[in-house]
Predict the structure.
Amino acid sequence: MVSRSDPSARSGVRLFLDSADRGAWERWLPSGLFFGITTNPTILDAAGLACRLPVLADLARDAFAHGIEELQVQTWGTDTAPLVRNGLALAALSPRIVVKVPVTFEGVRAVAALHREGVRTTLTAVYAPHQALTAAAAGADYVAPYFGRMGDLGRDALGEIIAMRSILAASGRTTRLLVASIRSAADLAALAAAGLDSFTFGTKVAEGLFNDPDSIKASAVFEATAGRASEP
């Protein structure tokens, strides 16, 4: 059985960098903003990485060398047995790995099985409020709704994610909402204003946190004033 000790057991905001690009890690992880990293097979492929255990073991070593608390990596397989088998192999790499599992029938069975083995999990690719209840019942540690993609489908993405939060609060479980598919810093702010506290996003959104023109202008004024004050 994998140890269920949780190095992330603390409340408050959790930001995750949604990237397997080591160059992006070098830029963003030293900022101190990010609690962890999230990946999936599509993100791995974009970084030129295969979804294979030796590759992921090497990736995990590099990720934790940056001082993050958690690395989320997705298991793979067409039915429950390989999802569980690969999930256990991923979890064995480090107690700070959280195993992501898609919200299919086989995936939910895998989450329940991994939970029984002490493996922390994220139920991912979530689009509907009832899936938050499913995640809590199966013992998932996180449930990851796709905010931007829900909006693309014409759904009330913010309203449905708030409903998920209410479902989880009523469930009595500690399953945490980890909002994914965030397209902009404005999305992030709207979700946070609604009471959400855990988010995963890519480098474009990260850049957007620092490109407010008025803040940039104010900073330039401060620097110019400091320069004049230091002149003899």
